[in-house]
Amino acid sequence: MKYSVIFTTSLILFITSLLAQYGSADEARAEIIFDSFNPDSDTIINAGILITLEKDWHIYWRNSGDSGIPTSFNFDLLEEIKISEVQWPIPKIFEFEGYASYGYEDKVVFPFQIKIPFDKTLNSFEIAVEIKSLICKDLCKPFNAEVRKVLDLKSAYNPPTEIKELFIKALNQLPEKNDVVNIEAIGYSDKISIKINSQRLNTTKIKSAHFIPYENGIFRNSLNQEFTKNSDSIVLNVEYGQFRTKTPESIEGILIFEIRSEEGIKKISYEINEKLEVSNNQK
Question: Quick check: is 223 in a domain?
Fold first, then answer.
């Protein structure tokens, strides 16, 4: 995937100002979607923000990497309506001339949940979401959209098959809360080493391992990260960025594994937030 403009962290404020000046891009469309629900029995409704991109265009994850800017969502709701945080499916890594960025292409659903008020006094209410991001192909364009949708609480809802399948795909691609792998993270002068142990994860079948941090500007963004493995553990080495903004006290982000299975290559991911131990040996 090639695009001609590579953005550095120093340009993020400039790009953000552009977003306020431009409207939606023709190459991307956004809408709010709902999964099946029955207001007589359900107290939680699964919803999502669906972004559909034209061929070869992509949009960015919460950490955009070496290019673009992170996608953001700002909700406008009635005070009595409570929603969960927007969730982020596992991103794809885009690489061009040694630079790496994180994002999505084709169609992506960002799931969230709506809590229905207990008093059931509302017959309907409107959800409004302001989306700000950047979309890229051979060039990059601001993507700024506001989408609205009314949720009818008077009757049950069953979405089209395509929407159901998009929800299933998105939920299957969400990073899991980590109760599977044990993490030991050690910091050196130029990198961190993440030692991963798990009795439930067959390390011998791991094809690749990758750590993507939630915060940009600390680690080098790359398509591949060096790792070694044995029968019960792997060690993943993640280099610091050349101009890192700080030395972290902890590592927070997602671990992504590609695992060989009978069905082919399966991708799984875990959210991690681990204290970083500093090694006495700084090599």
Answer: yes
* Among candidate residues 145, 172, 199, the one where a domain is terminated: 172
Name the residue range of residue 268's domain.
176-278
pLDDT at 236 over 70: yes
Q: What is the DSSP letter of 231?
A: S
Beta carbons within 8 Å of 264's beta carbon, 6+ residues apart: none
For tokens 């940009």, what's the residue?
Answer: 216
Q: Domain for residue 204, yes or no?
A: yes
CB burial string 93-125: b at 16+ within 10 A, e below? bbebeebbbbbbbeebbbbbbbebeeeeeeeeb
**Residue 73 has which token pair?**
């969502």
Closest by CA to 31, choosing from 118, 122, 121, 160, is: 160
Q: Which of 144, 172, 200 is the last residue of a domain?
A: 172
- pLDDT, tens only, 7-54: 444 344 344 434 333 335 689 999 999 999 998 888 899 999 999 999
